Amino acid sequence: MIIDSFNRVHDYLRISLTDMCNLRCFYCMPEEEYDFTPASRLMQQDEIFAIAKIFVENGVKKIRLTGGEPFVRKDAGKIIQSLSSLGVQLAVTTNGTRLHEFGDVLEASQIHSINISLDTLSAEKFKFITRRDQFLIVKQNIETFINNGFTVKINVVVMKDFNDSEIVDFIKWTKKIPVHVRFIEFMPFAGNRWTSNKVVSMDEILQTIGKQFEFFSQKGEKNDTEKKYMIPGHEGSFGIISTMTKPFCEGCNRMRLTADGKLKNCLFSDGETDLLTPFRNGDNILPLIAENIKGKAKELGGQFTSNLEAVEAKLIHNRSMITIGG
């Protein structure tokens, strides 16, 4: 098992397949023109499988593939199929724009749950956020995959005076559609112009929903990142990922492997461990993994606390969101 100094067992690995994306969301990718990592510096298909296998042999039970946008990688389908042979739970987070091209691969790899990033139900606002006109294909893919029996979760980064007015619209969407909407507190990353006054807290989200709907909390699991809720009479449900105001670090079991083969023990860690170079040199990377996780901070990468007013984004040392993989 892979255990940190706070006795947290780490059995969930998130692997970024690429830092490339076909959208340009301002809170994730700082600029329209972006220097993506050269292909030679990315983990190759066989390297992803071999490194993932080491994690699985040491207790990892779930692997989530992220990006950038994982489905813009040309060999994404082959990577998914190879990882499916490891016998662990596989999941994918995507922006949904190319999802229709991978339905057969996901079915064959027994992936039945998909997280889709969608911050608005307005086509016009979607184009403003992403700088791309792809709303209709994303919405259509969501509906198609739900109709085909997939569990679909929608990730909504909520920002004050931007899309917080749509919280109720997302809840109304769950009335007749069995979709699970996850509202995410806005988090600071390099280049995303984070300020505390843009954060819509969990309490504020619940207050907004409570003005129009009666809801009940659902029992969570130890490693959950979200607080889950249901509304009587609704086919779908909702949750809140309260990273900034009510962190869930105590039960953290997650590790992140970037597309260029660096291991991060926390979304906000200021350090990382290169696994790809020693792996290519034929070295045993297990001691490096163990050392990295042993060095994990108690919460929030050791860089800030849940006191929003005290968070100074410019002092946080981290990658941009797109190069971490979420």
- Strand residue percentage: 15-25%
The percentage helix is 25-40%
Q: What is the CATH first-level class name?
A: Alpha Beta
CATH homologous superfamily label: Aldolase class I
Instruction: Write down the Rg.
Output: 19 Å
Q: How do the SSEs run, as a string of H and E?
A: EHEHEHEHHEHEHEEEEEEHHH
Q: How would you characterize the largest beta sheet?
A: 12 strands, mixed
CATH topology: the name is: TIM Barrel
Helix count, DSSP H or I runs of 4 or more residues: 10
Number of strands: 12
Q: Order of strands side by side in the largest beta sheet?
A: 7-8-9-6-5-4-3-2-1-10-11-12
Give a concise summary.
The protein has 326 residues and is of the alpha/beta class. 25% of the residues lie in helices and 17% in strands.
SSE arrangement:
Elements: E1 12-16, H1 45-57, E2 62-66, H2 76-83, E3 89-94, H3 103-108, E4 113-117, H4 123-130, H5 135-147, E5 151-158, H6 167-173, E6 180-185, H7 202-210, E7 216-217, E8 227-230, E9 237-241, E10 254-257, E11 262-264, E12 273-274, H8 276-280, H9 286-294, H10 321-324
Parallel strand pairs: 1-2, 1-10, 2-3, 3-4, 4-5, 5-6, 6-9
Antiparallel strand pairs: 7-8, 8-9, 10-11, 11-12
Explain how this protein is built.
With 326 residues, this protein is an alpha/beta fold. It has one domain (12-324): Alpha-Beta Barrel (TIM Barrel). It contains ten helices and twelve strands. A twelve-stranded mixed sheet has the order 7-8-9-6-5-4-3-2-1-10-11-12. The radius of gyration is 19 Å and the shape is globular. The model has no long low-confidence stretch (mean pLDDT 90).
